Amino acid sequence: MQWTTEALAELEAIPEHVRPMALKAIENMAREQGSVQVSKELVEVAKAKYLGINTGDSRLVKKIAVVRCETVSEVCPGIGCLSAFADRRVAFEEYDRETQLLAFFTCGGCSGRRVSRLVEKLVKYGVDTVHLSSCMIAGKEHPFCPHRDQIKRAIEVNGVRVIEGTHY
Ligand code: SF4
């Protein structure tokens, strides 16, 4: 990955103790955008996103959330999702130990009326990835969610990545 001179200067301005993590996160962002070069603008976006300029959080930490089925939540306390995250298993393998599961919320009932509103709020706290719980997509222990595509769109429209699945 190539860095412009201006981007490197921006990187140097990031506190030393979080700089290695910043570098990794910024290069990942560039790759996700299909770029082989890091620009000053990209570093600025990453700083705002990960250094918590909007939230006052000065730590460089990835923040994610899980949305799950309101109906299934009547019979499931969420142990499968939460323990998979704690152990960084299955759909959570890519995350380092610093990653925070900042929210674990239900869709609000068919057809997922609560999702868009809550994701909008989570973006302000730096959440950039939302997992759809396995119960919504796998159709294994519970019928899969007939509204999952609509729920995905409601998340993605906020610029948030969607990952299908949590613990199976
Ligand atoms: S919208 Fe999907 S996830 Fe939400 S309650 Fe209905 S079936 Fe469950």
Report on this structure.
The relative contact order is 0.15. The chain has seven helices and six strands, in the order E-H-H-E-H-E-H-E-H-E-H-H-E. Helix 2 crosses helix 3 (40-50). The chain is elongated. The protein has two domains: 2-50, Helicase, Ruva Protein, domain 3, CATH 1.10.8.550; 63-164, 3-Layer(aba) Sandwich (Rossmann fold). Helix 4 (79-87) links the parallel strand 3 and strand 4. With 168 residues, it is an alpha/beta fold. Strands 4-3-5-6 form a four-stranded parallel beta sheet. A two-stranded parallel sheet has the order 1-2. Bound molecules: iron/sulfur cluster (SF4). Iron/sulfur cluster (SF4) is lined by residues 69-71, 107, 109-112, 136, 145, 147.
CATH class bucket of the largest domain: Alpha Beta
Mean pLDDT: 88
Sequence of strands across the biggest β-sheet: 4-3-5-6
Q: Which regions contain 5 or more consecutive residues with pLDDT less than 50?
A: 53-59
Q: Structural class, judged by helices and strands?
A: alpha/beta
The backbone outline, from C-alpha atoms, is elongated
- The number of helices is 7
Distance between the termini: 34 Å
* CATH architecture title of the largest domain: 3-Layer(aba) Sandwich
Kindly give the count of domains: 2
Q: List the bound ligands.
A: iron/sulfur cluster
Counted beta strands:
6
Helix content range: 25-40%
**Approximate strand percentage:** 15-25%
CATH topology of the largest domain: Rossmann fold
Major sheet description: 4 strands, parallel
Order of helices and strands, N to C?
A: EHHEHEHEHEHHE
